[in-house]
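Render this sequence as a predicted structure.
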Amino acid sequence: MSVQSGFQTCLQGGILLEVAADDMNVLTTSSTGKHAIGTQALNGCTCVVILGESAMLLAHIQPYDGAFEQDTQRDIPKESHDHHERALAAIAQAVQQHSDRFLASSTAWGIFAFCKEDGFVQSIFRQVQSHLQAMGYNMRSVFYDEKPVLEIAPPKGEVIAYYNTSGGAELWLEGGRLWPSTQDYSER
């Protein structure tokens, strides 16, 4: 018997605002019928989550735009940087549009892939951190273990954020609670 993930439970219950790969959305406390925001199939992707008093933003950013193809003519690091720049600019615009919901006291998270062979992509980490700092947030960071994409069916990796019954924000990665927590997840 398999255990259903929190993402699937929320999705089947009709309470999840699902964020697709290379997309972003904002869940507010006044969102009709939706009480959670989440994404799945993280493998190799970055997530940015901002938990405000009355809104949550979740962005799922793929390593680069489009499908991966082995092509020696492509400058993958530049494409990845540019792709993240566009996504981070959209995040900044959404935060500005909802500035009354995302105050300086909001909690910001960067969620990054960690590959045993390569570690994590420090340039992406610094890029996300820099953008969040420019918006006035100190980034909390966490790393998930990247798995070989071809060995996973269905795709694994999920992030869910929701407001609990007492109105506090909770953030979960891979079935483990990140926020609120007394453990410091910033070190790898």
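Summary. Residues 76-97 form the longest helix (22 residues). The radius of gyration is 16 Å.
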